[in-house]
């Protein structure tokens, strides 16, 4: 491949290229080290060079050169995924999108951006006219819009707007193909699902049209409770309170909050707690609900101070796992959905059955119009066999597991072959060069 790679790079004059081995190695990894299962599978998997296009025309040049010389291509945004989505299994070129940062336009309810625009940058611009992203990952400061669409599934805001794959949460994408003569294809409406959450296996996303939400001032609260199930039932009740506008409901069993160093002076040690974002106009009914559940507000920040210092967003979703692992690197995690558990009986059963081996962490989201608990449990890892036993037990009890310990697209949350995505790949990537070995159906 070396001679072909040299020829390819010669054809990309004028486009930034990184060949320094240390830099390339760094840009070949994401946060897959969260998984002790993935670490040995991905160790040593690096690209041969990184290219940084600034516009769609340069992406077309890169695509054409990769096809000409039969070089694999892996796309990455900011690399905040946790499953090795942007780790190249067969070397080749890594296309980093961070220099594609143009916000094409913003209007009421919609924005059109290049793939490398960061979520925080988009929100700052949209808030100037009273709008913001419908949902963001806990890595919103560094995550790119294209990377979130290609590798994410939901986030802060999902309690209002559901998941990224829900109809309406992505309006249009432009993708570059890896054919002999690369093309630009625009997908709109339901056709966007051909490339959404596909890990960049079947198209290079260059531009996106995304919906926006009305921008509220969000007050932040941490509420502590005497036991976990009270905290969980408070979270469900808040999710079901249609008259209270909320953006995040993140519930944690003890001792998870002990891992939140920046919040240690506020949260009582060994507390069960809920981290929430509530519209500032709804403080009063929110506080009334807290009293009903005998919770204690131990931390609050007004919307006026939201941009100052720490943000509770960065202790939710998989940032929870990040903080836990910073304290104990033997910890890992699971991702679960409790789809038919309105009384949280199954949540309680799992909590009591596993105890402190599987620490319960709930993120409330909307699925088919109903608010449910999704779980990103913190797991005390011992062996891969035991981890698989934990997964099988959950599934046998009716808990849906989106397995975070695989880099195979279909083996994570999909559980099945998406033939639309497969057929689209057959058309736009006939040589199988895009992020190879990640799509089981292609293999």
Automatic annotation (TrEMBL):
All copies of the FAD-binding PCMH-type domain together span: 43-215
Stored PROSITE patterns: FAD_PCMH
Task: Give the SUPFAM superfamilies listed for this entry.
Answer: FAD-binding/transporter-associated domain-like
Entry GO MF terms: D-lactate dehydrogenase (cytochrome) activity; D-lactate dehydrogenase (NAD+) activity; FAD binding
One Gene Ontology term of the biological-process aspect is: lactate catabolic process
Superkingdom of the source species: Bacteria
What name goes with this protein? FAD-binding oxidoreductase
Q: Which organism is it from?
A: Pseudanabaena catenata USMAC16
- Lineage of the organism: Bacteria, Bacillati, Cyanobacteriota, Cyanophyceae, Pseudanabaenales
């Amino acid at each position: 491949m070396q001679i072909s790679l040299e020829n390819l790079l010669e054809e990309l004059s004028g486009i930034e290229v990184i060949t320094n081995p240390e830099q390339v190695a760094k840009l070949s990894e994401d946060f897959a080290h969260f998984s002790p299962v993935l670490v040995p599978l991905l160790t040593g998997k690096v690209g041969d060079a990184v290219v940084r296009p600034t516009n769609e025309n340069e992406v077309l040049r890169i695509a054409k050169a990769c096809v000409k010389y039969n070089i694999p291509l892996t796309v990455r945004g900011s690399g905040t995924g946790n499953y090795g989505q942007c780790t190249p299994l067969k070397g080749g070129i890594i296309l980093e999108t961070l220099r594609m940062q143009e916000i094409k336009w913003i209007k009421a309810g919609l924005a059109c951006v290049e793939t490398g625009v960061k979520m925080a940058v988009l929100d700052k611009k949209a808030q100037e006219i009273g709008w913001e992203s419908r949902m963001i990952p806990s890595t919103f400061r560094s995550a790119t819009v294209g990377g979130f669409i290609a590798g994410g599934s939901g986030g802060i805001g999902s309690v209002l707007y559901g998941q990224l794959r829900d109809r309406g949460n992505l309006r249009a994408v432009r993708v570059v193909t890896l054919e002999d003569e690369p093309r630009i294809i625009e997908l709109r409406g339901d056709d966007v699902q051909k490339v959404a959450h596909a890990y960049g296996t079947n198209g290079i996303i260059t531009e996106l049209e995304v919906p926006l939400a009305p921008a509220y001032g969000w007050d932040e609260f941490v509420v502590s409770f005497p036991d976990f199930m009270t905290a969980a039932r408070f979270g469900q009740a808040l999710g079901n309170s249609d008259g209270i506008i909320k953006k995040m409901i993140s519930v944690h069993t003890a001792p998870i909050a002990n891992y939140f160093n920046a919040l240690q002076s506020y949260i009582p040690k060994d507390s069960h707690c809920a981290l929430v974002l509530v519209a500032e106009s709804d403080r009063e009914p929110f506080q009334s609900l807290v009293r009903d559940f005998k919770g204690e507000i131990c931390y609050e920040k007004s919307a006026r101070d939201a941009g100052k210092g720490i943000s509770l967003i960065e202790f939710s979703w998989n940032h929870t796992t990040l903080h836990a692992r910073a304290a104990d690197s033997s910890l890992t995690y699971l991702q679960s959905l409790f789809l038919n558990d309105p009384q949280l009986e199954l949540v309680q059963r799992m909590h009591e059955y596993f105890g402190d081996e599987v620490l319960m962490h709930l993120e409330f989201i909307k699925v088919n119009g109903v608010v449910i608990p999704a779980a990103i449990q913190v797991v005390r890892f011992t062996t891969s066999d035991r981890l698989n036993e934990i997964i099988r037990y959950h599934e046998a009890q009716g808990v849906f597991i989106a397995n975070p310990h695989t880099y195979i697209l279909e083996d994570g949350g999909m559980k099945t072959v998406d033939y639309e995505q497969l057929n689209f790949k057959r058309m736009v990537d006939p040589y199988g060069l895009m992020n190879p070995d990640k799509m089981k159906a292609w293999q």
